[in-house]
Amino acid sequence: MSGGVDSAVAAARAVEAGHDVVGVHLALSRMPGTLRTGSRGCCTIEDAMDARRVANLLGIPFYVWDFSERFAADVVDDFVAEYEAGRTPNPCLRCNEKIKFAALLDKAIALGFDAVATGHYATLVDGPGGRELHRASAWAKDQSYVLGVLTAEQLAHCYFPLGDTPSKELIRAEAEERGIQIARKPDSHDICFIPDGDTRGWLNEKLERAPGDIVDESGAVVGRHDGARGYTIGQRRGLAIGHPAPDGKPRYVLSIRPVSNQVVVGPKDRLAIGRIAGGRFSLTGDPGLDLAEPFDCEVQIRAHADPVPATARLARIDEARRTEQHRAEATHEIVADIDLEHAEPLLGVAPGQSAVLYIGSRVLGQFTIDRALPVDDGRTASA
């Protein structure tokens, strides 16, 4: 119970369904902010108090479990390390993977509970190969992307009571009918441990900034930067390049090389990605197909991005294609070619992002992007 309206209604529905329910609020920081600022952040003392009031209204036991040490190591430290290595992580997926459906679920199972219920908008379906994770009925609120890291074993102990609700407004209306005082509480957004939303400023306090070269794709130096970690893929402004490109067109950040401390820039059309590949992949269950053979699917690279048609396969890593961001321990990777006849190329793809694979509404699994090849390179590589 985060202290928000979604988990409040999820708990109420679980009680109404006849389950033996216990409310748990996760303390993820040893020094949480006392009060929220609008919709910024979550997991504050105020949120814990809101969750307790809902539990009292529902007549269920309520506990605060301190997972702050685990959260700091598995989510916050991982977030910093990924940026230090030139990657762009998604801490919400990591939190679901390491905290809510690992540490929390493990403790719940050890205490004799059958499942962890949350306010996520996603649907569970019992399929021929076992339990399957699917999109929520309301695609505008669908949160299956951030659940793409879950395994079949974890899904067997999950419960998402809100998955069939077609809109958030219906959830708020239901909360009001149930007398839940936080029915109109704003949704939280931004990264919970950076509540002011200034990710760059927060990282500047954690990581040293080392000046280096801005280069084009040929390696020619075209400018200087004051710290490569301050740049993002697709950035145009603030590059401080001393002279224009030969064609006179603007240049954009294409990649960041942490080992050589270089920022690579080039024309906008080089941001159009035709192939992505990466490791650290996981499946939500039996896919019912041979992953080594090309299969049709859809790929989503951000929580609120549109999925795009693709052809994916599991392949051994091509050593010649390794990059500075590539995970050295990986031996296999998922490779996905974007179907450019039916979708626009992916834009602004950065190593470290999570790509979630779908077949229809079903979540097949996910992988961490290590390589993103421009359209021309991607088509050439797949020929």
TrEMBL record:
Broad class of the protein's primary localization: cytoplasm
Query: Entry's InterPro entries?
Result: MnmA-like, MnmA-like_C, MnmA-like_central
MF-aspect GO terms: ATP binding; tRNA binding; tRNA-uridine 2-sulfurtransferase activity
The transmembrane segments are: none
User: Which EC numbers does the record give?
Assistant: 2.8.1.13
Sites binding ATP sit at: L26, G119
Note down the stretches annotated as region Interaction with tRNA. 141-143
**Localization terms from the record:** Cytoplasm
- Sorted alphabetically, which keywords does the UniProt record give? ATP-binding, Cytoplasm, Disulfide bond, Nucleotide-binding, RNA-binding, Transferase, tRNA processing, tRNA-binding
- Primary role: Catalyzes the 2-thiolation of uridine at the wobble position (U34) of tRNA, leading to the formation of s(2)U34.
Family the entry assigns: Belongs to the MnmA/TRMU family.
State what protein this is by name: tRNA-specific 2-thiouridylase MnmA
Origin organism of this chain? Leucobacter soli
Q: What is the lineage of its organism?
A: Bacteria, Bacillati, Actinomycetota, Actinomycetes, Micrococcales
